Records
---
Amino acid sequence: MKYEELCKIYERLEATSSRLDKTEILANFLHKLKKEKNKEIIYLLRGSVFPDYSQKEVGISAQLAIKAISKATGIPAEDVVEEWKKSGDLGKTAEKLVKKKKQITLFQKELTTEKVLENLRKAAELEGPGTIEKKISLLAELLSAAKPIEARYLIRTVLGELRVGTGEGIMRDAITWACFGREKAKEYVASVEAAYDKANDFAAVFEAACHGVKKLEEIMLVPGKPVKVMLALKAKNIADAFEQVGKPAAFEFKYDGFRMMLNKSEDGKITIFTRRLEDVTKQFPEVVEYVKKYIKAKSFIIDSEAVGYSPRTKKYRPFQEISQRIKRKYDIEKLSKELPVEVNVFDIIYYNGKSLLNEPFRKRSELLRKIVKGKKLELKPAEQLITDSESKAESFFRKALKAGHEGLMAKNLDAPYKPGARVGYMLKIKPEEKEFDLVIVGAEYGTGKRGGWLSSFVIACRDEKTGNFLEVGKVGTGIKEKQEVGLSFDELTKMLKPLIVEEHGRDVRIKPKIVVTVVYQNIQKSPKYASGFALRFPRITRLRPDRSPSDIATLSEIREEWEKETGRKKS
Ligand code: AMP
């Protein structure tokens, strides 16, 4: 297909903000694409050259794109930059400069979508010495053949700035309209969506949809390829959970970590994906070992939550403290020792060559527990209680909180697994949020866009016996970056700066004057803070200028709340 034809579609998509118009433009285009052999052109519609599940990137920065524009047009890079400064849009700059040059070029080769896919994919695969030069050449080759409008969209595509509004929902609707007709969209859209949630690949879904709904339904899970995870809804409390998922129900600890999809493909290869479909296998070598050691099956896709713990005390730690493991690319072995994770498996959706999506949770969970021989602090099935008793579920809830977890998940025993869907087959139950008035006794200067502001605040309660202020945590959320509604960093910084009594690098100590209301989820014992307690998930909700530090929450009030929460004292 001519690339120009696609660029005209981009232009039309860009010109309208109406969802229906966009869907119609796309559906008409897809209707034409049905006849093309190569359905992968659909990736270009989304501003990519790979399916959504892929981690590959073209890897061309604005700096490289400038060099390529210069190479293709013969215009010095400094002049390209000058032009770019004027328009602020490198795509427009490329369009203008290509136009200038084209006036004197007679011969012009037609650019095709296939050629664009080919060159940009080649660029993504390059490695080693000479990569940069080769990337520039691949893009310059395309730009040399490009018409001005093609240059505009080519540059936007490589920079990841296409932004023509072809989100997942619109693509799903357009495929449904193109393959089943707009009138019948309601009937078929769920099949298209379900297929996409399994495949995460619009070319595969479109190809199947072209051959009818049966082919769509045949789209299978493939271990080793990421699939979207099923999401949870909320329940107010245990009684509400039973109401929503029925009796009996499965209750499981809700671990405060991050989702991990553990895959073993037919060839024995292990891959780990996050809920955002990122491949994090390399970042978690110890988890790969646990999977090999503790899960006995030829192939599978197992859903789990990895939760961090302290290697010293073996206590669980909140997600924020281990989140760096997901992104880290170096010192991985060292980090895996410092920030170890325990993997809690809770569902299985593919086993020895078969999809289990439509099996009831009861069966999936039983199978999982049969094939996983677990070990604490390494990999094990999530703590589970199947019951129809409210009081048993309540005490299980308290047990979870006492062990340092966020709460419980309640699961419908008869439900299938719906990838990507936020359905009521799985509910989260957390303790009600509570609040304390506390005083700010310290802070930390922010970095990046919070540079210059105090952006993280140490909060304290009052020890009623000594009158001292004792720290109960650190809070950076609840405050706005801009002064629109509520409390802003700017405002708080201005109030706190005159009260600074000591500075150590970015940390400052602050005279206890400013009282704030802090909402939190639960309280944990913590040796890190002088009070011996830490508020979990704290959020500042407002200033309390009407309160003095002598009015704030006392240490014994905090201890009492903790006792209530952990069942040491009846509420
Ligand atoms: P939330 O992120 O607050 O919507 O809560 C749902 C999340 O809890 C899931 O996406 C999982 O990452 C996590 N989770 C922790 N433990 C479990 C469990 N036993 N079953 C299902 N999800 C869990």
---
Amino acid sequence: MAERYGGGQGRRYGGGGGRGGGRKPEPEPISGVRDEARLSSELLRMDGASYGRYKSLKGDWDFGDFTLTVQRVQSDPFAPPSRVRVLVPDTGIPKSAWGDPVRRRATADYLGRRARRLLRGSLLKIDTGGQEVIERSSCQLTDGGIDLRIGIDLPGHGRRIDGRTAERELCRTLPDLVDDLDWEEIDTEEAVAFADTVADTVALRAQLAERNLVAFVAEGAVLPRRSGVSDEPMTRGAVPFSPPESLRVSVDLPHRGTVSGMGVPEGITLIVGGGFHGKSTLLHALERGVYDHVPGDGRELVVTRDDAVKIRAEEGRRVERVDVSPFVRNLPTGADTSDFRTENASGSTSQAANICEAVEAGSHTLLVDEDSTATNLMIRDERMQALVHGDREPLVPFIDLVRPLYREHGVSTVLVMGGSGDYFDVADQVVMLDAYHPHDVTDQARALAHERVDADFTLPRARVVDPASVDDTTARGRGRIKRRDTDVLVFGESDIDVRAIEQFADPGQITGAGLALRELVGGRHMDGARTLAEALDSLDEALGRRGVTLLGSDFGGDYVLPRRYEVAAVLNRLRALRVADLR
Ligand code: ADP
Ligand code: MG
């Protein structure tokens, strides 16, 4: 069977030969003129040949207007799709659409979505986003041109090449796509409006800090989603957001002009209200408010500081040398809680570690929902204190630390808590949701508040990661980085459980975070001397300069830009992780 490959040209690739034939030899890439006409005739000629012949397509093909590069070819029809790259140097996109980084990202996103629509029903597949507009590898703008990374299930009749279909896809559908993405062909008004929306969101978020706000929710915003499994807006029965007058703020935006909405001030904000009155929906919108949304999402003008991190309990996670001493004083095991390691954290210690790690990574905005917290880390009421004395309870509850976190370290918290009034004691503002309408009930809550003595919050010690512990993991697994659904990131030999990392807004960010771990070590950002926060700064700086493709120029799949907080979260859940030093 081996003779069928390579068309008799002989030279063998792959290391299997020496051991008596593990891998099949790969055919030589087609040589000579490699233009559109040649590709067409080669594909038609391959019809009926053994599937492995597809590998001879590898390399560049000159289509005149664009270059098609066949990067990876699947070895059988059931393997993951093959990968091609389409580089169009000039599609007539004016500089106004790509000149600044925000518009460049938005226009690329718009064109990617258009490409997906145009490719509907084709074997060519392009990765695009859901409700968020995040930089991704699949569609990049060059200066006036476009750079697409596309997957294709190369067609076969069983193990034989279906050359006619392949020819149709690569030599007709693809050039049509390129034509249809030309600026002359698209609805430029819609494209510009898309970018305007994103630019307004970015401008709005940029104003939060100077106004001492951690979040803003515009009047009329639609927060609820269609269902628990759909991120699209609820269409029927959605109650639009109406800001309470006392928290109303107006903001000027470059395109939309003046908009008004609820400003969530820095400090401690409590969201209360009866069950099913929309508390978690509001918090969820704030979690996603670190990202920009597509026009029509309903949350285009719902923004949160870009350092906001959702905190939750996560029983069973690993913790590697985290200083959780503000929350955990003396454990029954006698372990040093300023250098805490466990293979199996409890609900409370996992949540404490999540908070300390978020602060370590640089977050100054914590988002917390009672639905996913460990009660014993949140509150301890008087009766429990009377029964279990201070010296028997190692935990310092969050309620005693949330004020020092803000006053001494500038870390704000937005907290949903419908089940206990204890947080009235520490809240700066209290918003009550009543049938999805927010009311400012700060004064009433304050009248019910008690005096409370705060505990001390000393910033957790900074960790220096041993880069070899990360590198080894991929090296031994030969660099495998793969996402299994939205549950697991396969990183070399490690399976990282990412289910509790709630601010991955796009599955591609999970892959992106895996690639970012690799880059942290490979790009020497994490060099065994820098702290984790310094390493993340260095990576952010490089990503800002080079863009998302810094992460995976050699990677045969789609990926999306992750935030530093999710990169840190993935690293913190790597079971092989070793921290070399605490500062
Ligand atoms: P809570 O956390 O207060 O118990 P949720 O935020 O989980 O409540 O919301 C309960 C239900 O109400 C969900 O099905 C959600 O989709 C719906 N909902 C939330 N906000 C709105 C709104 N503004 N308009 C209509 N339905 C909403
Ligand atoms: Mg809830």
